[in-house]
Specification:
Helices cover 22% and strands 7% of the residues. It is an alpha+beta fold. The chain has a single domain, classed as 2-Layer Sandwich (Alpha-Beta Plaits), CATH 3.30.70. A two-stranded antiparallel sheet has the order 1-2. It starts with 23 loop residues before the first strand and ends with a helix.
């Protein structure tokens, strides 16, 4: 499952540079995560780096984008090949 950023985001700018897949970008009001690029850092790290650095814990799993670890690994491999 990919991650999402909730309205509690304070636009602190610490999550975007931590994403190895460039899945995080500034949206109209808060940062957003592109579910097509988010692998929860599978293939790069043991834990999602954006969640690790977020000072307000506003990056939960996105219930609208449920994916298994295996699916996330395939997505990681496709992103690396591109």
């Amino acid at each position: 499952m990919s991650l999402m950023i909730t309205d509690e985001c304070i636009n602190c700018d610490v999550c975007e540079p931590e994403c190895p897949n460039q899945a995080i970008s500034q949206g109209p009001e808060i940062y957003e995560i592109d579910p097509n690029r988010c692998t929860e850092c599978v293939g790069h790290y043991d834990t999602p780096q954006c969640q690790e650095v977020c000072p307000v814990d506003c990056i939960p799993h996105d219930p609208d984008n449920v994916e298994t670890r295996e699916v996330l690994l395939v997505k990681y491999e496709k992103l690396q090949a591109a």
